[in-house]
Design brief:
The complex is a heterodimer of chains A (268) and B (256). Chain A has 8 helices and 10 strands. Chain A has 268 residues and is an alpha/beta fold. Chain A has 2 domains: 40-66 and 82-87 and 171-268, P-loop containing nucleotide triphosphate hydrolases (Rossmann fold); 96-168, no CATH class. A 6-stranded mixed sheet of chain A has the order 6-7-8-3-9-10, with helices on both faces. In chain A, 40% of the residues are buried. Chain B is an all-alpha fold. Chain B folds into 2 domains: 1-32; 43-251, MetI-like fold. Chain B has 10 helices and no strands. Chain B is flat, with a radius of gyration of 22 Å. Classes of the chains: A alpha/beta (268), B mainly alpha (256). The interface between A and B is medium-sized, with 30 and 21 residues.
Chain lengths: 268, 256
C-alpha cells in the first residue's frame, strides 16, 4: 500500500444522515441532525463551531460511546453499535491519574487493549521503553517519572496525547486538547501534533473552538451550526504540508480563517 | 525536623495538654471541689497508678474488641461501598436501608446482641462493627461515584470493561476517601465497644467504669476516661499514619 496508489481507498469513517439526541421520547434533546461526512484513512479533520453545537457529541458518536438516533455510521465498513476498541482520546482536561507517574499514565491503555493487556505483565520493561520514547518525541525527556501534579499544564497535555497514542490506535480523537493552555504553549503543541500526524499517519479528529488551530492542522475543516448541530460547510485546506507555523501569517491562511469565522456568526 | 516543625508538632500540643491539667488542678484546689464531683488530675493519676493492673487488663479487652470490630467494618465497608458505587440501581436500593439502619442508636441494639451472644466480647465487637462501617461505605461509594466522566470515556473508548474501569480508576481514586473514613471509623468503633461494655459486659473499660461508679470510686471513673482519651488518640494516629502512607499523592499540597 503506497500513498500514490491510484485506486481510491474506501473511507475509514462514513456518516450518512446521522442524527443523535440525549434522552428518549418526548424529552429527547437533539444534539446532532442529519450529518453526513467521510473521513479517509490518515486524514486530519477538524470540527469547529459555536459553543454547545454538538462538536463533542459528534466525537462521542463516532467512537461509539453514544448511539445514533437515525442514519448510518460505519467505521472500517462495520456499523458502530458499541464503543470502538482502541480509539485514542484526549480532552481539554488532561485527566491523568494522579497516583501514577507520567510514564505509568501513558502505559494505561496497554493494560486495557488486547493484545497488549495479556503481554504487559511479562514485558513491562519493554513497553515502558516504548512509552519513554514516545514521551521523548513530544519533549518530555526527563519528566517520565514525575507525577502529573509536578508537570505544567502543557506538559500534562503532551502526556495525555501520548496516552492516547501508545496503543497505536487507528483514530485519534481530540476534544479541545489545547483549550486550557496559553497561546505559546498551544502553538508549540500544534507543531507536536502536526509531527505526530505526519510520522504515524494516524487518522485524527480534532474538535476545537480555535479556527487558526483547525486550519493550521487539518486537511478538512467542518463548520457546525448552532444546536442541533448540522454541517454548514466543508472546507478543504489545501495549504501544502509540512506546514511551518509561519504559514499562519500568510494571506491565504488568514482568508480561510476569515471565511470560516463569517460562518459561525455571533455578536460583533 | 526543623526548629519550627519541632515547635509546632511537639512543643505546642504538649504545652496545651500540660496547661489544661494545670488549670484543672488549680481549679480543684481553689474552689475545693469535692472528690466525688470532680477529682483533680493528681488524684486521678494516683488512682491510675494504684489500679494499674485492672485498668491495663480491661484496656486490652476494650482495645482488641475495638480493633476486631474495626477490622470487620473495614472489610465489610469496603466491599459494600464498592457494591453501592458499582451501579446506580444498587445505590438506590441499598442507600435508604443503610441510612435507616445507621439512624438506630446502637446502644439500643446492645441488649439484643447480649440476648443472642450472651455477656462477653462478642456484643462489643459487633457494636463496634455496626457503628463504624457506615462512614466507610458512604466514603468509598462517593469516591467511586465521582469518577470524572471524561476519564470513563477515555477508558470505554479503549474497550475497557466496568471491572477494568473499577480496578484502574475507580478503586485507586476512592482510596483517599476510604482511608479518610478509617479515621472516623476507628473512633466510632471505640465508642461502640465502650458503649456495649457499659450496657452489659463482664470485662472492658466500660464495665470497669460502671462498677467504679456503682461504688462511688469516682477517681477510677476519671482514670478510665483518661485512658479512653489516650487510646482514642493512639488509634486515630495509627489510621492517620496509614492514610498518609498509602495515599500520599492526595496530600501533595501539604508536604511538598
Amino acid at each position: 500500500m503506497t500513498p500514490a496508489s491510484p485506486q481510491p481507498m474506501p473511507p475509514l469513517v462514513v456518516l450518512n444522515g446521522v442524527s443523535m439526541s440525549y434522552g428518549r421520547g418526548a424529552a429527547a434533546v437533539p444534539a446532532i441532525e442529519d450529518v453526513s461526512l467521510d473521513i479517509k484513512r490518515g486524514e486530519f479533520i477538524a470540527v469547529v463551531g459555536p459553543s454547545g453545537c454538538g462538536k463533542s457529541s459528534l466525537m462521542k458518536l463516532i467512537s461509539g460511546l453514544h448511539p445514533t438516533s437515525a442514519g448510518q455510521l460505519t467505521v472500517d465498513n462495520q456499523p458502530v453499535d458499541k464503543p470502538l476498541k482502541s480509539v485514542g482520546m484526549a480532552f481539554q482536561n488532561s485527566n491523568l491519574l494522579p497516583w501514577r507517574s507520567c510514564v505509568d499514565n501513558v502505559l494505561l491503555p496497554l493494560e486495557i487493549v488486547p493484545p497488549y493487556r495479556q503481554r504487559i505483565g511479562r514485558h513491562r520493561a519493554e513497553y515502558k521503553k516504548k512509552a519513554e520514547e514516545l514521551l521523548q518525541s513530544v519533549g518530555l525527556t526527563g519528566f517520565t517519572e514525575k507525577f502529573p501534579w509536578q508537570l505544567s499544564g502543557g506538559m500534562q497535555q503532551r502526556a495525555s496525547i501520548c496516552r492516547a497514542l501508545i496503543h497505536e490506535p487507528e483514530i485519534l480523537m481530540l476534544d479541545e486538547p489545547f483549550g486550557a493552555l496559553d497561546a505559546f504553549t498551544r502553538e508549540e503543541l500544534w507543531c507536536a501534533l502536526r509531527d505526530i500526524h505526519a510520522a504515524r499517519g494516524v487518522t485524527v479528529m480534532l474538535v476545537t473552538h480555535d479556527l487558526r488551530e483547525a486550519v493550521f492542522l487539518a486537511d478538512t475543516v467542518y463548520v457546525m451550526s448552532n444546536r442541533p448541530g448540522r454541517i454548514l460547510k466543508k472546507c478543504e485546506v489545501t495549504l501544502p504540508r509540512p506546514r511551518a507555523l509561519e504559514v499562519t501569517y500568510t494571506p491565504t491562511f488568514q482568508n480561510i480563517v476569515h471565511e470560516l469565522r463569517s460562518l459561525i456568526g455571533g455578536q460583533h | 525536623m526543623t526548629r519550627e516543625d519541632f515547635l509546632v508538632r511537639v512543643v505546642s500540643p504538649s504545652a496545651f495538654t500540660v496547661g489544661l491539667f494545670l488549670i484543672w488542678e488549680l481549679a480543684c484546689e481553689l474552689f475545693s471541689i469535692p472528690l466525688t464531683i470532680l477529682p483533680s488530675p493528681s488524684v486521678i493519676f494516683g488512682a491510675l497508678w494504684q489500679y494499674r493492673e485492672p485498668i491495663t487488663e480491661n484496656s486490652w479487652v476494650t482495645l482488641w474488641t475495638t480493633l476486631a470490630g474495626f477490622a470487620l467494618a473495614t472489610v465489610g465497608g469496603l466491599l459494600l461501598g464498592i457494591a453501592v458505587g458499582w451501579h446506580r440501581a444498587i445505590y438506590a436500593g441499598i442507600y435508604p436501608l443503610l441510612v435507616g439502619f445507621n439512624s438506630i442508636p446502637k446502644v439500643a441494639v446492645v441488649p439484643v446482641l447480649i440476648l443472642w451472644f450472651g455477656l462477653g466480647e462478642v456484643p462489643a465487637i459487633i457494636t463496634a462493627f455496626l457503628i463504624s462501617f457506615f462512614p466507610i461505605v458512604v466514603n468509598v461509594a462517593t469516591g467511586l461515584a465521582t469518577t470524572e466522566p471524561e476519564l470513563e470515556d477515555v477508558m470505554r473508548a479503549l474497550g475497557a470493561s466496568k471491572l477494568d474501569i473499577m480496578k484502574k480508576v475507580g478503586i485507586p481514586r476512592s482510596l483517599p476517601y476510604f482511608f479518610g473514613s478509617l479515621k472516623i471509623a476507628i473512633t466510632l468503633a471505640f465508642v461502640g465497644a465502650v458503649v456495649s461494655e457499659t450496657v452489659g459486659a463482664n470485662k472492658g473499660l466500660g464495665k470497669l467504669m460502671l462498677d467504679a461508679q456503682a461504688n462511688f470510686q469516682v477517681p477510677i471513673v476519671f482514670a478510665g476516661l483518661l485512658v479512653l482519651a489516650f487510646l482514642g488518640i493512639v488509634l486515630y494516629a495509627f489510621t492517620a499514619i496509614i492514610e498518609k502512607r498509602f495515599t500520599g499523592w492526595a496530600f501533595r499540597g501539604q508536604n511538598r
